[in-house]
Design goal:
The structure holds 2 protein chains of 2 kinds.
Chain A: H1 27-39, E1 43-46, E2 53-54, E3 60-61, E4 66-67, E5 70-73, E6 77-86, E7 103-110, E8 117-121, E9 134-139, E10 152-157
Antiparallel strand pairs in A: 1-2, 1-5, 3-4, 6-7, 6-9, 7-8, 9-10
Chain B: E1 5-12, H1 24-38, E2 48-52, H2 55-58, H3 63-66, H4 68-71, E3 78-80, H5 87-100, E4 106-114, H6 120-125, H7 140-155, H8 159-173, H9 188-193, E5 196-198, E6 201-202, E7 211-220, H10 224-227, E8 232-240, H11 256-269, H12 274-277, E9 280-282, H13 290-298, H14 306-311, H15 335-351, E10 364-371, E11 375-382
Parallel strand pairs in B: 2-3, 2-4, 9-10
Antiparallel strand pairs in B: 1-7, 1-8, 4-7, 5-6, 8-11, 10-11
Helix pairs in contact in B: 5-15, 11-13
Chain lengths: ~160, ~375
């Protein structure tokens, strides 16, 4: 008798436990969320070399490899540059459960900035949304804000 | 001055969606064993190993250490290289660098992934910035979808144009028994009727998730000719990265990293007219629209001309410039191996070992890698030694 068995079922082992991390937002990122809480407007940083205003605000411009220190106040409106209605299920690593679908992932050029800000748009009908549409940020109530990206609930189309 | 380097052997697994019969190191070992057999070397002949995958897909870190039994790395110099989607081309290029440096004569490059072991999209989401992007980001598909929607808007390309690319890949995979989608042909109607995942990307427009591995042996000039009848010489490599932020990518200017990397790689390889001088290309096309837009970035056709170039049959087997005789990424996507498979398949074409998927008379072959925030690798291989 050998130990070979042709009917052996192939097993797997499951890991499904939470594993916390703590990420630093940084100086300008922290200011960004404070500005949203206090004034409900966006904040960017301007590159002294290429002149672009970048949001989220950051300390370094990649192409110029340049330190940025000029904060620029921006409005709460912008333009849809690209979007996608997400319609497939997946586990959201931020929550550990399936992210609610459908939802619309939007690339938004915040007025006064020169790049794209990623967030969600509260329109999931692909026929009612177009590149070039104007949008406005919808924020949580100030007392409910937690200093993270979800202090912006979503962007809504200005019709 | 760098030494001349050639690929002398390749090996890959028969790719499947789930390989529950093997763990990671056993899967790696299948590819390594086949690569060594292909060039009739033993593991003792290998001077150093480069290995890569994306740790978070399996959540087992340091593959360089835990895979030693499978890779053959016991008591050898090993380095792990992980660069996202380009991991496979990065291990290839790192293997090339090792040999070209003059410090190692024979180097084994390995890429692998067991995508069945986690939720691939959830794992990809962990690549994005946790403060800013992770909340809205949903993995590879929507950022590709945003690119596709901008391309369609700009040039009037249609979903049917993209479907034609998807059909080509599956048709080519009929010739590749290693492909996950081997013997699973589709029609344009099938693509159009498949479920919409993220407009305009449907289920059959996008790559699968795969368990698989690939291994490639690089050897120095003077050694390579003794190992392989027809080595695949590395004529040039080029690597370009773009931005940290998804939002900083200009979706209207085309694939800047691929454009720049291709330009440099062609120049280094002495290629002036890519369509005429490249005989076959194994491109990292993770979704069908890339088969339209990214070939424009490479310079196979002008901006907006991708659809016509495809419909005219140029990229089919028997066409002017066959793309992905293997079936490509849309037929097999074991992510850490995916870009190495492109390099291996390009080498196979040069070496004349492609069997049913062989393109006749290949002098120059091109392979690409694509990753995350729109970065690109390009490798040009040739039948003749580079200058």
């Amino acid at each position: 008798m050998g130990i070979d068995r042709k009917d052996t079922e192939l097993l797997t082992v499951t890991f499904d436990k939470g594993m916390p991390y703590e990420w630093s937002i940084g100086k300008y990122g922290s200011r960004f969320f404070q500005e949203i809480k206090e004034h409900k407007r966006f904040l960017g940083t301007r590159c002294p070399k290429c002149g672009r205003v970048l949001v989220p605000p950051r300390r370094i411009c990649g192409p110029c490899f340049q330190e940025l220190d000029e904060l620029v106040e921006l409005s709460d409106t912008g333009t849809i540059m690209a979007f996608s209605v997400v319609n497939y299920p997946f586990i959201d690593p931020a929550t550990g459960i399936q992210r609610p679908i459908p939802y619309t992932y939007g690339y938004i050029n915040i007025d006064g900035s020169d790049n794209i800000f990623s967030h969600i748009i509260n329109e999931t009908d692909a026929n009612k949304i177009k590149v070039g549409m104007k949008v406005r940020a919808v924020f949580k109530e100030s007392q409910e804000m937690e200093g993270n990206i979800q202090d912006i609930k979503h962007f809504e189309i200005i019709r | 001055m760098a030494r001349r380097v050639a690929i002398v052997g390749t090996g890959q697994t028969y790719h499947k969606s789930h390989r529950l019969d093997v763990n990671g190191r056993e899967l790696i070992n299948e590819a390594v064993t086949r690569a060594l057999a292909d060039c009739e070397l033993s593991i003792a002949d290998i001077d150093a190993i480069i290995i890569g995958n994306m740790d978070h897909f399996e959540s087992i870190n340091y593959v360089d250490t835990w895979s030693v039994e499978g890779s053959g790395g016991y008591m050898k110099p090993i380095m792990k290289v992980t660069t996202g989607g380009t991991t496979g081309s990065s291990v290839a290029i790192a293997g090339y660098y090792h040999v070209a440096s003059g410090l190692f004569d024979k180097v084994l490059a390995i890429g692998w992934e067991k995508n069945s072991e986690s939720d691939t999209t959830a794992a990809i989401v962990t690549c994005s910035d946790p403060i800013w992007d992770r909340f809205s980001y949903s993995g590879a598909i929507p950022s590709l979808a945003t690119e596709a929607s901008a391309y369609m808007e700009q040039y009037g390309a249609t979903q049917e144009d993209a479907a034609r690319v998807a059909v080509r890949e599956r048709t080519h995979a009929l010739n590749n028994p290693y492909a996950q989608m081997y013997n699973r042909p589709i029609t344009i109607k099938d693509v159009m009727e498949s479920p919409m995942l993220a407009y305009p990307i449907k289920l059959l427009d996008v790559c699968p998730r795969t368990d698989g591995a690939c291994a490639v042996v690089f050897a120095a000039e003077g050694v390579a000719e003794k190992i392989a009848v027809r080595p695949a010489w590395v004529k040039s490599c080029s690597v370009r990265h773009t931005t940290t932020w998804f939002g900083d990518v200009d979706y209207n200017t085309g694939m800047l990293s691929l454009k720049r990397a291709s330009k440099e790689a062609f120049e280094k390889a002495g290629i002036k007219d890519p369509v005429e001088e490249i005989d076959v290309a194994e491109l990292y096309l993770p979704y069908s629209y890339a088969g339209l837009k990214w070939i424009e970035a490479i310079g196979f056709c002008g901006p907006g001309e991708g659809p016509k170039f495809i419909w005219d049959g140029n990229t089919d087997m028997g066409g002017k410039l066959p793309i992905n005789p293997s079936g490509g990424v849309m037929c097999t996507n074991c992510i850490g191996a995916t870009a190495l498979l492109r390099v291996a398949e390009a080498a196979i074409q040069i070496m004349g070992k492609g069997e049913a998927r062989q393109v006749p008379d290949v002098t120059n072959a091109m392979a690409t890698g694509f990753g995350g925030c729109w970065w690109s690798d390009v490798v040009i291989l040739g039948k003749d030694k580079p200058n």
